[in-house]
Design a protein that fits this description.
The complex is a heterodimer.
Chain A lengths: L19 E14 L2 E14 L3 E6 L5 H8 L7 E6 L2 E2 L5 H10 L1 E4 L11 H12 L3 H14 L15 H13 L5 E5 L7 H16 L3 E5 L3 H6 L2 E6 L2 E7 L7 H5 L32
Parallel strand pairs in A: 3-8, 3-9, 6-7, 7-8
Antiparallel strand pairs in A: 1-2, 1-4, 4-5, 9-10
Helix pairs in contact in A: 3-4, 3-5, 4-5
Chain B lengths: L1 H15 L1 H38 L4 E6 L12 H7 L8 E16 L2 E10 L2 H5 L4 E4 L4 H5 L4 E4 L1 H8 L8 E4 L2 E9 L5 E2 L2 E2 L3 E5 H8 L4 E2 L2 E2 L3 E6 L5 H15 L10 E5 H40 L1 H13 L4 H36 L11 H27 L3 H6 L2
Parallel strand pairs in B: 3-10, 5-7
Antiparallel strand pairs in B: 1-13, 1-14, 2-3, 2-6, 2-13, 4-7, 5-10, 6-7, 8-9, 11-12
Helix pairs in contact in B: 1-11, 2-9, 2-11, 2-12, 9-12, 10-12, 11-12
The chains are: A alpha/beta, B alpha+beta.
The structure holds adenosine-5'-triphosphate and magnesium ion (MG).
């Protein structure tokens, strides 16, 4: 069922292929809060191909996390269809969904969601435990994943002994450890300073080059620029879905100052993400 | 080998939440220790009662003067005892010892006290398996010669003689001088006729004649009771019937007359006593069960307090690919581990209590922990751990991962 053809290496002809990995059609998520119904997702349709690098932006409460949870098989939509590599997910058993979450999808939560009182190495080994990876190999893979996020020296630290940014990176290492084909990250750089943020972006760039499908929710312009495609949400609807037509930028390139017009540093908090003026394209449609 | 992997997860989780684990185990430890000790006290007391009855011989029948009809004059005589003692006619009746008892004043160099004096034969010592602390019980010869000899119960000896050795000394019963020839070992327990330790034994005819001038019936001295040891426990009912027939005949009772004597059976007394001690065990077991329940509620509280944290944990584990069966197995192993450890510590604690209780001299019985109570206590503690540990986990696995992660 799982097609990994899309994961060409750097020397492959194309990174992005037109094989749809994620196909969402008319997806709705309604939270009934007493009298009022909150349409967290309102008739969303979205197709993402193998190897794409997609940024999802939008104001706070626009439904970004809700959409990510749906894609990550962590939540069930109220209505609509969601296919992963052609398989309708509503027809999957709980156990098949668990296997997909374990092997195909890596998820970085907005609120890191680490196990309390458990050291970083154990956190990262967790997906491997459920994958049935033998102990010795799991230790090795966890070490490599922690090294990728530059946390090998903090392997024995527990969450309360780590900074917010370090916790975020543990969560990223955990998402990557089982070599998923899809990486979902909900505000992965929100808690990071610009330097570590850049490092995470460099990591994402490499993963993209290796053919991984990346979907990143962000308020950070730089990430949005790095991604080749930007999907904008407002009030549970997709109000724009733009491809900037450029090949993905390596962080080293924009760090050299390739773009003067971009505001420096990530835009934090509740700010509305700004557009990417270099391409002369509108990220937001005017309301 | 899958279970082994969950074992390590469970151990990690317990180590990561030591306080929670300790509190959970504490409930089980207290519950199990309480059940085992209280039930142990019950069965210890029961065993002690049974033992003291059995030590006086289960094959023992006691014929006492007077029947249910309430006739005042005693008709049970020494001649009846002699008739029953005919081993050719009644092979089932192995040993027959008549007794005549009344209270009398004993004096010894200024010390004085009123005690129950039992006149009996040498056979009595065998029938009731008396043990001597010093000296001897009187012999058949001494009984036949009506010698003025006396064997003292432990308390009587210490009352009258203090720490001095009574054997060889003399004591006055009412006005008559007797030689002390033996002291019985301390028994401690109380029988129907009071403690053996407070009794004084003299040859039967000395009591009936010299001391108390007992009534006669048809020419022979009356007796209070006749103790009879039956050859074997299977023959008890047959022996009882024989005795009844012989005595009715000897006392000339008609078919319509009621017995003017009462035969009591040691086995009946034993049955009654074990009923009493059974009630005791149930009562104490009830108290123990309540403590186990309290322990169980403690476990439930801890589990419910941590349910938010655990629900989030379950959400996270599911998010990274845990199947529901993975979660349940982990919680099952963890709950079993906690309850087993708690149960074992509780068992150890109750044995400790039993040991300490056994070392206290004032305790006349031991705490006896029976194997089935171990099984019960472990079973209940495992069940409570499983119930309170697994139920929240089962509920949490029914949630979508994101719902579990958001749980508050
Ligand atoms: N469990 C829930 N119950 C009720 N309403 C919810 C729930 N989860 C989300 N919502 C609502 O759905 C809408 C979308 O929420 P979502 O978390 O997807 O926003 P977001 O785009 O991720 O915002 P942010 O940028 O602040 O993280 C919000 O209006 C929110 O109030
Ligand atoms: Mg969000």
């Amino acid at each position: 069922m799982m097609n990994t053809n899309g994961r060409n290496g750097r020397n492959g002809q194309t990174i992005e292929q037109s094989i749809p990995v994620i196909e969402i059609a008319n997806m709705t998520k309604i939270y009934q809060m007493g009298e009022t119904a909150v349409h967290a997702l309102n008739d969303i349709s979205l197709t993402i191909n193998e190897g794409e690098y997609v940024a999802i932006i939008g104001t706070s409460g626009s439904g970004k996390s809700t959409l990510m949870n749906m894609i990550g098989l962590l939540d069930n939509p109220t209505s609509g269809s969601y296919r992963i590599r052609g398989t309708e997910t509503s027809e999957l058993s709980q156990s098949q969904m668990a296997d997909l979450r374990n092997k195909e999808i890596g998820f970085v939560f907005q609120r890191f969601n680490l196990l309390p009182r458990t050291n970083a190495r154990r956190q990262v080994e967790l997906p491997l435990f459920y994958a049935g990876t033998p102990g010795g190999k799991a230790v090795q893979m966890a070490r490599e994943a922690l090294a990728k996020v530059k946390l090998d020296d903090r392997a024995d630290h527990r969450p309360d002994e780590l900074s917010g940014g370090q916790q975020q990176r543990v969560a990223i290492a955990r998402a990557l450890v089982n070599n998923p084909s899809i990486l979902l990250a909900d505000e992965p750089t929100g808690a990071l300073d610009s330097k570590t943020g850049d490092e995470v972006m460099g990591l994402f760039y490499d993963l993209h080059q290796q053919g991984m499908t990346l979907i990143v929710v962000t308020h950070d312009n730089d990430i949005a620029r790095q991604a080749k495609r930007i999907v904008t949400l407002r009030d549970g609807k997709i109000i724009s879905d733009e491809r900037n037509g450029h090949t993905v930028l390596h962080p080293a390139e924009w760090a050299r100052g390739g773009d003067e017009l971009v505001t420096n540093g990530p835009v934090k908090g509740e700010a509305i993400a700004i557009s990417l003026p270099k391409e002369g394209e509108r990220v937001y449609e005017s309301a | 080998m899958r279970a082994l992997r969950y074992f390590s997860v469970a151990v990690d989780s317990i180590v990561a939440h030591k306080m929670r684990a300790v509190l959970t185990m504490l409930g089980i430890i207290i519950g199990v220790a309480a059940v085992l000790s209280t039930m142990g006290i019950g069965s210890g007391a029961a065993a002690s009662i049974t033992e003291s009855i059995e030590s006086s011989g289960t094959n023992l029948l006691t014929v006492s003067a007077g029947g249910g009809g309430g006739s005042s004059a005693s008709t049970l005589t020494i001649a009846d005892a002699t008739a029953l003692a005919n081993s050719k006619a009644f092979p089932d009746l192995a040993l027959v010892a008549p007794q005549y008892s009344e209270s009398a004043t004993l004096t010894q160099s200024g010390e004085e006290g009123t005690y129950q004096v039992v006149g009996t034969t040498a056979t009595y010592a065998d029938v009731t398996s008396l043990d001597m602390a010093s000296g001897a019980f009187f012999t058949t010869e001494q009984v036949e010669n009506n010698e003025r000899v006396v064997t003292l119960g432990w308390n009587v000896a210490s009352d009258l003689f203090g720490s001095a050795e009574p054997v060889g000394q003399t004591v006055r019963i009412n006005t008559n001088l007797f030689e002390v020839i033996g002291v019985l070992e301390e028994v401690g327990t109380v029988s129907r006729s009071g403690s053996i330790d407070d009794l004084v034994y003299v040859p039967i005819e000395v009591a009936q004649g010299l001391l108390f001038n007992a009534d006669r019936y048809r020419g022979s001295y009356t007796v209070s009771t006749i103790s009879i040891q039956v050859a074997s426990s299977e023959r008890i009912d047959a022996a009882e019937l024989q005795i009844e027939q012989v005595l009715r005949l000897r006392h000339g009772l008609g078919a319509d007359d009621e017995n003017d004597f009462t035969i009591s059976n040691q086995a009946d007394i034993l049955e009654m006593a074990s009923e009493v001690s059974g009630t005791l065990t149930v009562l104490l077991g009830g108290i123990g069960a309540i403590s186990l329940l309290v322990g169980g509620i403690g476990i439930m509280n801890i589990m419910l307090v941590s349910v938010t944290e655990r629900t989030r944990e379950i959400g996270l584990r599911k998010a990274v690919g845990a199947h529901n069966s993975d979660i349940l197995l982990q919680f099952l192993v963890e709950a079993l581990l906690l309850t087993t450890m708690g149960g074992l510590v509780g068992i150890g604690l109750s044995y400790g209590v039993a040991f300490i209780a056994g070392a206290i001299p004032a305790m006349t019985f031991n705490i006896v922990i029976e194997p089935w109570t171990l099984t019960l206590a472990m079973g209940v503690s495992a069940a409570s751990g499983l119930l309170f540990g697994l139920y929240p986990a089962m509920r949490a696995t029914q949630l979508d991962p994101i719902e579990a992660l958001r749980y508050e």
